[in-house]
């Protein structure tokens, strides 16, 4: 079903979102602070709103994707939101999303907050995901309309949940990048071909390890950190070994040392029999 949708914010991400909605046959109105960024979308059939208020007026679903939440508020302040759905796909913190939900509700609109798990080039491809939280009624109403941008996933009525899960996913990613960089520094210090190591050894190993994470999640939820895999004493010795090997190889272990500190702390508390999942209690 073709919908009237407005997209406010045509940076790299907003433009990709608007483009995907146009390609799916929706009637799209666009607005951007720097007006000429609307031109390629207008050439493809979008209507240009001269002001944010005019763009909001044109649609019952208003998608915002700008730099931050203060900019989102600036844009929407003079618009008539009453009876509309605002889907804010701007990246922010959970507390900002909750505050924005109240601000939008005071103006008579329903609110969805979104976390985009993709880069602009991935929009409208199968790998892209957008998390939504907030009004379930609004999500149900527009789930189909969201689909051309990226696979939509509703994660609950608490407006801050999409932002929190977005941050959690980025956290997992940064941890993985930290591990990769440390491994790469060690491998290159020995002049072993890094591309071979990465493709043939590291990636299959990481995939096998990642497959264990749902088991860890179960342990963490149950609070039972006993292990049949390797206890903290074994990991403490392993980390000691790692730290010494890095030092002997002349490579810094800065990105991973905090983990060693936390293992040492947990062992010092007399919990050497636990598995690594127990480290979460120290966080
Ligand atoms: N790019 C990514 O890979 C990616 C991935 C996930 C999420 N996101 C999120 O998507 C959002 C937009 O990112 P982007 O990549 O599109 O950034 P971008 O290319 O730098 O575009 C920023 C957009 O925000 C607008 N803007 C900034 N300050 C404004 C203000 N005070 N008032 C009105 N408009 C303002 C800009 O307008 P002008 O054109 O006039 O400057 C532009 O439309 C961010 O929250 C970002 O975290 C991006």
Automatic annotation (TrEMBL):
UniProt xrefs under InterPro entries: 6PGD_dom2 (IPR013328), 6PGDH_NADP-bd (IPR006115), HIBADH-related (IPR015815), HIBADH-related_NP60_sf (IPR051265), NAD(P)-bd_dom_sf (IPR036291), RedAm-like_C (IPR048666)
Ranges of residues in domain 6-phosphogluconate dehydrogenase NADP-binding: 4-151
Start and end residues of each NADPH-dependent reductive aminase-like C-terminal domain: 158-282
Coiled-coil regions listed in the entry: none
Family: Belongs to the HIBADH-related family.
PANTHER family: CYTOKINE-LIKE NUCLEAR FACTOR N-PAC (PTHR43580:SF2), OXIDOREDUCTASE GLYR1-RELATED (PTHR43580)
Annotated protein name in UniProt: NAD(P)-dependent oxidoreductase
Species annotation: Nonomuraea cypriaca
